[in-house]
Amino acid sequence: MSLQTPEKQSPNTQQIENALTQQLDLLPRRDAVLRMSEVRAAEVADQPVSDDDDQTMMMNMGPAHPSTHGVLRLMLELDGETVVRSKPVVGYLHTGMEKTAETLTYLQGPTNVTRMDYASPLFNELVFSLAVEDLIGIEIPPRAVWIRMMMTELNRIASHLLFMATNGMDLGAVSMMIYGWREREQVLRFFQKVTGLRMNHNYIRPGGVAADLPDGWEQDVIDLLDMLPPRLEEYDILMTGQPIWRDRLQGVGVLTQAEAQALSTTGPLLRSTGISWDLRKDMPYLAYDDVDFDVIVGSYGDSFDRYAIRLNEIRESMRIVRQCVEKMPVGDYKAQDKKVTPPPRTRIDESMEALIHHFKIFTEGYKVPEGETYIGIESPRGELGCYIVSDGSAKPYRMHIRGPSFVNLQVMPHMMANGLIADAVVVISSVDPVLGEVDR
Amino acid sequence: MGDPYLSDGVDLGDVLLAAGKAVFAFTVLLVAVMLMVWFERKVVSRLQNRIGPNIAGPFGLFQTLADGIKLFFKEDVIPTKADRFVFQLAPYLSLIPAFLTFTIVPLAGDFSPGGSEGRVVIFGRETFMQVADVPVGILLFLAMSSLAVYGVMLAGWASGSKYPLLGSVRASAQAISYEAALGLSLASVLLLSGSLSTNAIVQVQAGEGFLGVVPNWNVIVSGFVPFIVFLIAGTAELNRPPFDFVEAEQEIVGGYHTEYSSIRFSLFFLAEFMNVVTLSAIMVTLFFGGPAGPAFGLLPGWVWGFIWFFSKLIVFLFLFVWFRAALPRLRYDQLMDLGWKVLIPLSLVWLLILAGIRLAQPDENGVSLLQVSDNPTINTAYFLGAALSVFALGALLLMVASKNARDDRLKSMGLKAVAIESAEVN
Description:
The structure holds two protein chains of two kinds. Chain A is mainly alpha-helical.
């Protein structure tokens, strides 16, 4: 027996190795990932300069660097200005939000998750609410569904406008930063009117949305949609057709389909390689079946494709929002399920039971049946997933967010390989990570 | 040639006059720099839907002064790893060349037909309205522009820090890619003017041009190409967008001046803005006739020269601000490509064409140095054709060369291989 075991295992090991090599072959540039401990990196950095031509330089980019989008840190191994190997280091914005979620009731949950991807907060609230609703098994009224869809699409526009701004800034087109913010500001102004806040709205909650749309919202949205197209054409003039812009982006940070799939990238990064994968089309949620829109797909997988995809996704989102305005159903904006929905303010003055009900919901929260669920939605950065395990109490036993920014970060070394530092900046910018979501 | 007040020996009055002119020019430059910083911030703000400085003084005019005072009182930090002497010296290496170049610029003077050829009388001495009319004027400009790179390079090297080091390496890489083009584009101008002295160059341009209506400016006479090459190379020399690699904030966090603070930091900025004003002034002098322009009476002729000079100057200052607001930054290897593969060959061939035309044209005696045909027009056309065919051949070779280089580079980056592999996988 003891002799047979190794013989029996050896083909297995061989098979595993073969499978592994096959998988690794999908990543031809895997040597570009810097696998070096902090201690070793510090040793290498302190080496005296030698006349050796092969000597490389270790450099830290971030966490306090103007173009690492917050507090991303990159360890770069440089040969001159060429990036030989690199390693993204995360954790500088870690605030333990997933752990915090275990101490908050399901009603308080959206307040917590909305702070993760702060450039598209409504998506975090949406995915959390969808997961909780899935566990409880309640239906939400159609108006709430369409409000959620309209608001998240507007949020997608705001998020992509922010990308336009930061991408321009990272390439030295500083005016673009202001223009992108200017347009985003208009969207945020509408959010403020609806939710009371410009970001971290806590607007989408399990059971529906926090408040109905304010009077005159149609006109506000139509104004917004009429304001944007000429501005986007200005972007085309300022950037898309600009030869320097094209030189800086085209062929830079190329990602292949195999690499993108092997590293489980999603969102514009994946679509830039030519794979049409958009959860709104492929696994529809909310009412995306009822609206007409296109999935924008690139063909080269370079930074220019990712820029163009995001620019055109703004246009597609505008189409969806316009359809939302046309088709917005009337009715309740939250589920009339006494279990999850607090009673309206006027009822509290009239009824003792309503007061008690209100008090219980906001102190104890509501109990969610035992079970676990995973819901994925298409955020501006890719697949945003929420995994919740419930033990039957009023608080999640475990809540995990699959942040697209975090998963997308791992393609960076592959895309930066053999580029210059200026290209590395373009790569970071075109991955468009939000560090709040990476570190959580 | 040369300044007339120096032609008959030097006495104490001449020395005082020279010193007075230097002080005056320095003041003009400093005030111009102060206004330039304000102008740039104001114009960029307007282009970006902002208001810009508007608190300090009327229209925020004293903002630069306020910033200067603030920087002056900040702590001057020198990093422990820095080479102290070089670190302290570098800002001055940037600042002094910036000022010295300004001394050769004719600021005013009556260059109108029938005017005084730029001479004015100060304290009974006849002189030009420039600090010095050096016989090697343009060479001085080239020398100073090369020297100024040392300030940037040494600052980055002496900081003892990695980002500034990258900035200084970029500075030297950048310098070798634009300086040759800068010099070659100037050679065309010198060919037309026949002199290195700035005053003489302005006087040539003050002459009557085509049909008596078009000004005789070098930008037109030399056929625009040298001017465009000079403008691009000059922007690179100024380290201004879209060529601001040495301080690219988004890439190398401020580059050579990352470790500088307090007054040394502001000296770099002073030098940078001085360079903008100086280079614009040089461009106006070399290509747009400097202070040359018609005088309309009312005011003394040299005041008209002053007005013309500054009107032309402001156009270029605006142009540089506009570049900054509108253009993304190039990558520094793209500037090297642009310099070596486009600007240098272009200016070389253009020089050849201009030289060919000049040789083919008959001189006062009706004899041209290169004679193929007796008809001067056919003679010129012959050489023009020859030069253009050289131009076409060169352009063709260059296109082939750069395409090959591009393919090689892509291959070396493994991009082609990766692309093919991915096609096979799917």
